[in-house]
Design brief:
The protein is α/β, with parallel strands linked by helices. The chain contains ten helices and eight strands. The protein has a single domain, classed as Rossmann fold (3-Layer(aba) Sandwich), CATH 3.40.50. It is 47% helix and 12% strand. An eight-stranded mixed β-sheet has the order 3-2-1-4-5-6-7-8, sandwiched between helices. The structure holds NADPH dihydro-nicotinamide-adenine-dinucleotide phosphate and retinal. The site of NADPH dihydro-nicotinamide-adenine-dinucleotide phosphate (NDP) has 30 residues, from helix 2. Its EC number is 1.1.1.300. This is NADP-retinol dehydrogenase.
Length: 321
């Protein structure tokens, strides 16, 4: 009987493998999701992308550079950034890409970055808040913020605050906030925003991605009439370095990689929101697979969005009306 079970298991694995191989092209096509079909050129436009040295950010940078934009890649590790820029130039010799140092886990770095940027770059048409950290062990940023909240939300909040004047002067301009489907599982824990009482790395990530959705909606409302639009994005489930802090997720993502998006596929919705002509006046919306997407009720609450805005300003020591 034991031998029979072994045979059944081997046959089962064989059948599953065969089916997977047979349907691999279909599975891949389905997993890839929607591609951005717009042919818009970006000659003469300046784009800033955070976390552009790898993953979705790097692929977004390559695509926008191919469209003729000057792409500024804001990276915390400029060596990694230069390697990414070199690989973009190898694919697109005419690419105007440059690397600048930005550590979103340090408000001094964000302020220094913005100061130099405003001195040296005189226009900004597209800002893509892409950088992110997921499920890291409990860590604080230089300013004492919990890492997910500090980098994914507060760091980008401060960066956008410092650059919004330039975006307005360069209008029409767009801001793309890379959030996630994970916002569905998040709650803004105003009583313990920095998880000092209790910490769960998954929930901390979800909270920060919900903060991204709320920030995009509230900023869109405040920028109404300025010709600067803001939309948030879920890129899909993408096989990137994002899982680096979780061994289980890293193993699962590589084993099931055929079912996941590649970083290039994951960049499509960011590219769509940054370039699609039909979105020129669309603001405060959430997109996935280059289409409008569902937002969880907690991501649609104007009250929570306003409260988060006020708390974020307070924590960063800024006034932003
Ligand atoms: N991959 C996925 O399945 C999904 C991703 N997303 C979102 O997409 C975005 C991009 O993720 P993805 O490309 O997958 O992940 P990667 O880990 O490949 O890229 C993340 C980028 O963020 C940068 N980064 C992290 N911390 C900081 C910091 N303190 N200062 C500046 N840059 C920083 C990283 O730099 P470095 O390499 O130096 O660490 C890297 O360039 C994230 O916001 C993520 O939340 C949303 C849903 C699903
Ligand atoms: C359940 C399951 C999977 C799906 C995981 C998903 C859907 C992860 C989504 C992550 C997100 C959205 C991260 C960033 O924001 C895998 C890996 C295919 C392996 C098989 C089990």
């Amino acid at each position: 009987i034991a031998q029979m079970w072994v045979l059944v298991i081997i046959a089962g694995i064989g059948v599953v493998t065969l089916l997977l191989l047979l349907f691999a092209p279909h599975i891949r096509r389905y997993a890839a999701g929607a591609a951005c079909r717009t042919a818009s050129r970006l000659d003469g436009k300046t784009v800033l992308i955070t976390g552009a040295n790898t993953g979705i950010g790097k692929e977004t940078a390559l695509d926008l550079a191919l469209r003729g934009a000057r792409v500024i890649m804001a990276c915390r590790d400029t060596e990694k950034g230069e390697e990414a820029a070199a690989s973009i130039r190898a694919e697109c010799p005419k690419a105007q890409v440059e690397v600048r140092e930005l550590d979103l886990a340090d408000t001094c770095s964000i302020r220094a970055f913005a100061q130099k940027f405003l001195r040296e770059v005189h226009q900004l048409h597209i800002l893509i808040n892409n950088a992110g950290v997921m499920m890291c062990p409990y860590t604080k940023t230089v300013d004492g913020f919990e890492m997910h909240m500090g980098v994914n939300h507060l760091g980008h909040f401060l960066l956008t605050y410092l650059l919004v004047g330039l975006l307005k002067r360069s209008a029409p301009a767009r801001i793309v906030v890379v959030s996630s489907l994970a916002h569905n599982f998040g709650w803004i824990r105003f009583h313990d925003l920095h998880s000092q009482g209790s910490y769960n790395s998954g929930l901390a990530y979800c909270q920060s991605k919900l903060a991204n959705v709320l920030f995009a909606r509230e900023l869109a409302r405040r920028l109404n009439g300025t010709d600067v639009t803001v939309n948030s994005v879920h890129p899909g489930t993408v096989n990137s370095d994002l899982t680096r802090h979780s061994t289980i997720m890293t193993i699962l993502f590589s084993v099931f990689s055929v079912f996941l998006k590649t970083p290039r596929e994951g960049a499509q919705t960011s590219i769509y929101c940054a370039t699609a002509e039909e979105l020129h006046s669309i603001s405060g919306k959430h997109f996935s697979d280059c289409s409008p997407a569902f937002v969880a009720p907690q991501g649609r609450s104007s009250e929570t969005a306003r409260k988060l805005w006020d708390v974020s300003c307070e924590q960063l020591g800024i006034e932003w009306d």
